[in-house]
Amino acid sequence: MKFLLAFDFDHTIIDENSDTWIVKCAPEKKLPNGLRNSYRPGHWTEYMGRVFVYLGDNGIKEDVMKRTMTTIPFTAGMVDLLGFIGKNKELFDCIIVSDSNTVFIDWILKAADFHKVFDEVFTNPAAFSSTGYLTVQDFHAHHCAKCPKNLCKREVLKEFLDKQLKQGVSYTQVVYIGDGGNDLCPVMFLKKGDIAMPRQGYTLEKKISQLAQNLSPVECSVLVWSSAIDIMSYLKLLIKE
């Protein structure tokens, strides 16, 4: 008996958007209008690339960024939930599928000592250049019309499950925990025995209930959470069964 827990990161594990939090490092903690207005829907990673150039041009160094990022609060109950999962790793495989980047997620998880809870992190690759600028690239290219151009979370989840199956690992249940519009695509891939856990009051919950109203509900079960303690209570029931 093994369960897969697939987590989003921003507004799910942490209670903020890591990409907008980094703006606290900018002069006067804000971006110039021209830069802020340069975002085009579906092209967030390119936009963040420009933000990182701006920070670099203003002499914002890696250590300042790291200090800022590690002050992001975790979502209510998340520290308890991740501690619980860490103590029960023989039952839970754990992945992150996120539109953030490798540097931010690595900093935040390591600072709180949660990096060992997660088996794999799928997110946009980032690194510091020789001149000290943070650079970010698209996670992959894909053909899904529903998702931003840099990341289709359904494709990531499907590839991970296929790879695990080839290695002889199949899961009793997949639990997908998220909040955003880009979490709907993987939720629609989940099967009848799986469960989607959308955060209460966020886009994913609204999109799932919209589908139900349109008489095309998702196939999996749905359990809404507002604190990660709700998720932990569910997992405790799951491993008792």
Commentary on this structure:
The protein is of the alpha/beta class and 241 residues long. 39% of the residues lie in helices and 16% in strands. It is built from 10 helices and 8 strands. The protein has a 6-stranded parallel sheet with strand order 3-2-1-6-7-8. Helix 9 (203-213) links the parallel strand 7 and strand 8. The model has no long low-confidence stretch (mean pLDDT 95).
Strand line-up in the sheet with most strands: 3-2-1-6-7-8
**Strand residue percentage:** 15-25%
SS content category: alpha/beta
Name the poorly predicted regions: none
The helix content, as a percent range, equals: 25-40%
Total beta strands: 8
Q: Main beta sheet, described? A: 6 strands, parallel
Q: What is the overall pLDDT average?
A: 95
* Cα distance spanning the termini: 10 Å
Compute the CA-based radius of gyration.
18 Å
Per the principal axes of the C-alpha atoms, what is the gross shape?
A: globular
**Strand/helix succession:** EHHHHHEHEEEHEHEHEH
Layout of SSEs?
Blueprint lengths: L2 E5 L10 H4 L11 H4 L7 H14 L4 H8 L8 H10 L4 E10 H10 L8 E5 L1 E3 L5 E3 L16 H14 L6 E6 L5 H6 L5 E4 L4 H11 L7 E2 L5 H13 L1
Parallel strand pairs: 1-2, 1-6, 2-3, 6-7, 7-8
Antiparallel strand pairs: 4-5
Helix pairs in contact: 5-10
What's the quick description here?
It is built from 10 helices and 8 strands. Helices cover 39% and strands 16% of the residues.
Could you list some keywords that capture this structure?
10 helices, 241 residues, six-stranded parallel beta sheet, 39% helix, 8 strands, alpha/beta
